[in-house]
Design brief:
The protein is an alpha+beta fold. The chain has one domain. About 40% of the residues lie in helices and about 25% in strands. It has one helix and three strands, in the order E-E-E-H. The chain has a three-stranded antiparallel beta sheet with strand order 1-2-3, covered by helices on one side. About 10% of the residues are buried. The mean pLDDT is about 95.
Amino acid sequence: MQQNYTAVIKQDAGWWIGWIEEVPGVNCQEDSREALVETLRVTLREALELNRQEALGAAGGNFEETSIAV
């Protein structure tokens, strides 16, 4: 299932900087807009997987997963 997130991007002093609104800590800087968008995509994917692994580890055993729509 693909989810969409919002990237806030801007050019500042020759660099492209950006972050993902919905996930704190996902921010990047690149020298082109295209590179920034790709780096944000990779960093977001890694952050979500890390958060998922931490959540599953904290749950221990005997748990269930369910989808929640907002």
